[in-house]
Amino acid sequence: MSTSLFPPRLCLLLVTGLFCATTTASAVSGDKAGAAYVGSESCASCHQQAYKGWQQSHHWQAMQPATEETVLGDFNDARFTHFDVTSKFSMRDGKFTVETDNAKGEMETFTIDYTFGFYPLQQYLIAFDDGRYQALSVAWDSRPKNEGGQRWFHLYPDEAIPHDDPLHWTGAFQNWNSRCASCHSTDLRKNYDPKKDTYHTEWSEVTVGCESCHGAGSQHLAWAAGQESIPDKGLLLSLNDRANWQMTDQRPTMVNTSEQRPQRQVGACAGCHSRRQELAHRRVDADYLESYDPSLLLDGLYFPDGQIQDEVYVYGSFLQSKMHAEGVVCSNCHEPHSLQLRAEGNALCGQCHNAEVFDTPAHHHHPTNSQGAQCVECHMPDRTYMVVDPRRDHSFRVPQPALSGLLGTPNACTGCHQDEDNNWAKQALEDWYGHQPLRDQHASTLAIARGNNPAALKLLQKLANDPSESLIVRATAVRETGRFASTETVTEAINHLYSDDPLLRVAAVHAIEVLPVNQRYTILGPIVEDPVKAVRIAVAAALAGTRPSQLSSDQAKGLGALYAEYQETLAYNADMPSGQLNIGLFQLAQGDIEQAEGAYQHALKLAPGYLPAMLNLADLYRGTGAEEKAKPLLQRAMTLAPEEAPAYHAMGLSLVRQKKIAEAMPYLQKAAELSPESARYSYVYGVALHSSGDTAKAIEVLQQAAQQHPYDTSITGALKAYSEQKP
Asked: What's the burial of 652, exposed, middle or buried (CB within 10 Å: 0-12/13-18/19+)?
C-alpha cells in the first residue's frame, strides 16, 4: 500500500493542529535498555518462510535504493508534461535521473536515490545537501497497461504546481524525512536541527523490516542462541493476540469462543495505517496512544455515517466495525509477512461467514462470480486516492441508499450502478430483504451537529453514552459537543474526563475548549498527570494560556512538567510548517511574543506559501499594534491564494481597526462571498455594512446568511436589531 505524502489543498488552511541522511543507525538504538536493532537478515535463518514472504511484500518494497531491480518507471528518455513543465526521465552513467523544475522554477537534472512504494504507483526520492529527501510529484503508474498503467502521471493532475506553490515537490509537504520516513523505514530517527534547518536522518533498516513490527531483536537472538533465562523469548511484545473462533449451529457466522478482544496487534498496525498525529518517536513496545493521537470521525475526513472521505487509511474505519467489536484482528484476513490476503475472493469472508448462507444469489442478488457478487463490493466499497490507488473502507457496513437520500452519504449500490439513483437502490433492497430500519443511527446526529444545530447536543450526549456504539463513534460525539457552548456541554465533558478509555478522555479535553482559557484549569488541572500521553498532550494544548505563575507551587510544578512534555512533542514536529505554527501558538499563549514570531517565521521559511503562518503572524503584529507589518503578509496571502477567504477577512478587519471603513468593505465582501459556509465572515460583513450606513444591504446580507446558518445567534440577533431599526 502506498502512503500519501500529499495533503488536500484545504488542509493547508488549518491554523491549528499538530500535524544529510545516512544509511544506518547506531547499533545500540533500541526500544528499551539492552535491546538493539539487528536487521531483518538476522531473522532469516530461523524464520525462513516468514522472511521469504516478507521479501515479496509491500513492506519490503516500501523504500529501496534505486537500482535496475527496484525501479519500475520508464527512464528511457521518457518525457511527461504537466501544465508548462516537461520532465525528462533518463539514465546517466548507470544512474536514474530526472530533469525537472527546481525550487526556483528552473530546469535541473537530479539523481534518483530511492524508490518509494511499489504498487499501484511508485514514487521517487531525491537527496539534497541539507539532508532532505524530497518525493517527486510525478509518479509511475505501475498497474498493467490494460488497466491504464505503465505511464507517468502527476499526483495533482488538474492543478498547476509552480515552484512557489506549497505543494511543489521541493517543498516541506513533499519532504520524506518528516512526512513519510517513520512508516517507510525501520527505527527512523529524523534528527532535525531547527537552528540550521538541516537533517541528519538515520535508520536501522531502509525499508519496513521485521523490527518495525516486532521491535529491536538483539535479545530475541540471544534467547535463540541459548540464553533461555531471558523473559518472553527476548521479544518486546507479542503480536499473536488473535482470538479463538468457532462455527455454531445457532449462527451462520463464527463466534469468538475465547471472549478476548485483542488490541495489541491492531494498535501495532495502526501506527502506520491510521490518520494520526505523531507525539513522539515510536516505541514498538508502547501502546498506540503513547506515540499517536488518532483522528476521530470529523467533518472533511469521514462522512457523517463514518464512511471514508479524505485519505484516512484503515484504523479509524476498522474501529467502527462489528469485526473489531467481536475481536477480529488484522492477521485474521492478512498474512502478516507477505501481506497477502488469507484467501481469494469471497473465500476470505467465508473463513468466518457460512458461504452457504452468504455466498449465494439468495443473499447478494447478483449473478454468481460477478463483480456484484463479491462481498467487498457491497461491504467494503473503495475510494481512490493519489489518482490511481483505490482503498477499501474497513468499517464493513451494509449499504444504505435510504440514508444516502437523507444525508448525501455514498453507498455501494449507486457507487456501482452510477446510472441509477438512491430511490432505485432503496427499492431494490426492500424488494430483496423487505423493509429495513436505518442502520448507523449516529449518522443523523453527526450530520445535525455539523450543521451547528443546538438540537444536536442532547443527541450527541445520548450517543456518547451508548455502550452499543463503537468507541470511536462515542468519542467523536463527545468531541462534537464542543461545538455548543453550554453548561450541559461542560458537564458531559467532565463526566468523560474520568472514563476508563483514554480515547474518550482525549475527546472530552477537546470539548472543554469551548470554555474561555481562564476557566479551563479548574476542570483540567486534576488530570495533568493522566497515565496516557495522548491525553496529557491534549490537556497541555488546551491549557496553553494558563501560566504556572498563576498557580500554587504544587500546581505550578505539575503544569510545568506537562508543558515540558508538550514542548518535546512540539519539538518532535518542528520540521513541519504546522509544527512551527503550533510552537508559535503555544509561545504566544504563554506571552512570549518574540518566540512566537520566530516560530511563525520559521514556518514560512519551511513553506513560504503557508497561509496559516502568514495569517497568524499578521495577527500577532495586529496584537502588538504593528498593522503596517501585517499588511504585506496579508497581501502576499491574497496573491498566493486568491480563492481563499481568510486573508481577505483579515485585511478587512485591519482596515476597520485603522478607521478605513470604505477601504475595508471590498475585502470583507470578498471573504463572505468566497466562504459562505463561514457564519463569522457574513456576520462581520453585515455589521460593517450597517456601521457604514447601508442598513438595507446589511439586512440583505444577513438574511442570506441566516438561511445558511439558521442557528447562529450573532447573525439572527443582528438581523433582528437592524430590522427593527429600519424605518
From this structure: buried
- Domain of residue 41 covers 9-211
Q: Taking the CB of residue 568, how many other CB atoms lie within 10 A of it?
A: 12
Q: How confident is the model at residue 258 (pLDDT cuts 50, 70, 90)?
A: confident
- C-alpha–C-alpha distance, residues 520 and 315, integer Å: 31
Question: In 498-542, which ranges are continuous DSSP H helix?
Answer: 502-512, 517-524, 533-542
Does the predicted TM-score (pTM) go above 0.90? yes
CA separation (Å) from 115 to 1, 121, 385, 422? 14, 11, 19, 43
Nearest to 412 by CA among 363, 374, 444, 359: 374
Alpha helices, DSSP H, located in 301-389 = 315-318, 322-326, 346-349, 355-358, 361-364, 375-379
Element at 564 (helix H, strand E): helix 553-572
* Displacement of CA 457 from its chain's centroid (Å): 26
pLDDT beyond 80 at 9 = no
End-to-end Cα separation, the chain, in angstroms: 66
Question: What was the pLDDT predicted at 613?
Answer: 97
Distance CA(618)–CA(494), nearest Å, equals: 35
Give pLDDT, residue 16.
32
pLDDT tens digits along 685-707: 999 999 999 999 999 999 999 99
**Is there a contact between 135 and 124 (Cβ–Cβ < 8 Å)?**
yes
**Residue 334 within any structural domain of the chain:** yes
Query: Does residue 249 sit in the same domain as residue 357?
Result: yes
Q: What is the mean pLDDT of residues 189-203?
A: 97
- Residue that finishes a domain, picked among 189, 211, 233: 211
Q: Is the pLDDT of residue 562 over 70?
A: yes
Residue found under cell 495533568: 528
Is the pLDDT assigned to residue 392 strictly greater than 60? yes
| pLDDT tops 70 at residue 527 | yes
Contact 480, 301 (CB under 8 A): no
What pLDDT, on the 0 to 100 scale, is given for residue 28?
Answer: 38
Number of domain units in the chain? 3
Are 268 and 284 in contact by the 8 Å Cβ rule? The answer is yes
CATH number for the domain spanning 662: value is: 1.25.40.10
What distances in angstroms separate CA 25 from CA 22, 29, 132, 204, one per listed residue?
8, 7, 17, 5
| Residues 697, 672: Cα–Cα separation, whole Å | 13
Q: Are 719 and 689 in contact (CB under 8 A)?
A: no
Give residue for cell 497497461.
145
Q: Which of 344, 371, 397 is the last residue of a domain?
A: 397
What is the Cα–Cα distance from 646 to 702, expressed in whole angstroms? 19
Confidence of residue 6 (pLDDT cuts 50, 70, 90): very low
Which residues make Cβ contacts (< 8 Å) with residue 253, sequence separation at least 6? Answer: 247, 352, 353, 354
Residues 159 and 25 in one domain: yes
Q: Based on the fold, state whether residues 199 and 297 are members of the same structural domain.
A: no
Residue 570 has pLDDT above 90, yes or no: yes
When pLDDT is cut at 50, 70 and 90, the band that residue 33 belongs to is low
pLDDT of 727 reads: 64
Find all residues with CB under 8 Å of 689, minimum gap 6, and list them.
665, 695, 697, 698, 701
Residue range 661-689: mean pLDDT, rounded = 96
Query: 470511536: which residue's cell?
Result: 472
